[in-house]
Amino acid sequence: MATDGGLRNFWRKGLRIATELGMPPLQQRIETLILGMGEAPASAYPDGLIQREVEVLILVATGKTDREIGEELVITTRTASTHVGNILNKIGAANRTEAATYAASHGLGAGLT
Amino acid sequence: MAQAAQVDYYHERLLDAIEKAKQVLAIPLDELKLANECDARYIYCMSSHGIGEPPGQQELTSFITVSERLGNRLWLHFALWQLEYTARFRGDWAAARQFGQQGMAVAPGGPTLLSTVQQTEAETGEFDRAEELLQVLMTPMVENPVNPTFHYSAAVMVTGQNSWIAGVPREPALPHRYTDFVLSSPFAIPLFASVTDIGRALDAPTTGNLDTCQSAYKALERLRGQFISVMAIDRLLGHLPLATGNVPRTVGHFDDSLAFCAKAGFRPDAAWTCWGLAAALLERTGDGDRRRAEELLEERAPDRD
Questions:
Q1: Which ranges of chain B have pLDDT less than 50?
Q2: For the segment B129-176, what is each residue's pLDDT rounded down to a tens digit?
Q3: A26, B267: Cβ pair inside 8 Å?
Q4: Which CATH class is domain A46-105?
Q5: Mean pLDDT, chain A, as a whole number?
Q6: Domain finish residue from B106, B128, B145
Q7: Could you give the CA distance from residue B265 to residue B269 in angstroms, rounded to a whole number?
Q8: What is the DSSP letter of A46?
Q9: Complex ipTM
């Protein structure tokens, strides 16, 4: 694995664009590819959170409901709920209050994204 | 001349279409009918996207202005679609959604815009929303199954695209009867047939249909170096031989796709191509192939975005 720096750079280029633009399905495909090679993905956020989840987490931390999050991010309430569930699983939070605490302790605040 | 440009466009002669559209737009404005100007601007914008030289802000603004002066909702819809198109290809999803919503408000149910706004939803992981829009697109087809209009091609393309982006077959399954309906029709417009081929080509690797991979490749290879509907054709062509194990051919297409996307500024497509190329090179796991992959990628990585 030590000699495949170019390969990693290439993956990272794809991952960087996907993360920057907010393309979770592609991020997941690239991360799966990297994991298949035995590497941990170079996520820009803690605990494997992706860009969209960080956006949702920030809104959770401000006390917004799933419906309000959906309206703000122009996504369905169901999709917002899915994101919230995934976030809680990834960060090991039992509820939204713990998620808000996590966001604050990891510097995930409004304006970050 | 404007209508001749349209014929060229729908028959996938993009350079000819651009040339004719330019000739129309060179006519003094006081002699040019607004409808003809809209026609020419539409074909110019679409064909320019197709060759990887997207229209500039001035051209897009002119299209909006003239369609508003004409007071025709359909042309305003098409003009807003061009703004949506341009934003989406850059990966500016917020702007793409904004223009898409404006366009759908002007002409709800328009199949062209409906066929592309779903890409934004799928690329951002909003598959539920994408599939809601697909149902809107398919409703008139269920009610009025007549000729192979763009609705049919768009439904096939969008279905394949959603499965492709998700990496697993999505519901509804690819409407094969629509595919056959378009491709077997003597009246199908060539561009619509190509959009249908794109849909089945996107669906085939996900469902493991190797025969379709081969036949779709054969149908679309003549369009290499173009961007049609939702993607660089070379990116799509790259995935099809990979399904049958032809890695060298795959790499060649992805190489072309990266160059095309870099020229055009199509960043989402570039990112997908990066993934496809990496996946292709890792398809074979031997050390020799690994080293070859590293060498190729070392050479290419610095210049690409």
A1: 285-288, 299-305
A2: 988 888 888 887 765 556 778 888 888 898 888 888 988 777 666 677
A3: no
A4: mainly alpha
A5: 77
A6: B106
A7: 9
A8: G
A9: 0.85
| Whether B231 and B169 share a structural domain | no
Distance from CA of A108 to the nearest CA of B (A): 21
Residues B132 and B163 in one domain: yes
Per residue in A49-91, pLDDT (tens digit) is 766 778 889 999 999 999 998 888 766 676 678 778 878 988 9
Q: What is the pLDDT of residue B49?
A: 92
Domain extent for B232: 224-305
Same structural domain, B171 and B260 = no
Same domain, B68 and B159: no
Contact criterion met (CB < 8 Å) for A7 and B294: yes
Could B128 and A6 be called an inter-chain contact, meaning their C-beta atoms sit closer than 8 Å?
A: no
Chain B: give the shortest CA distance to residue A71, in Å.
13
Same structural domain, B126 and B208: yes
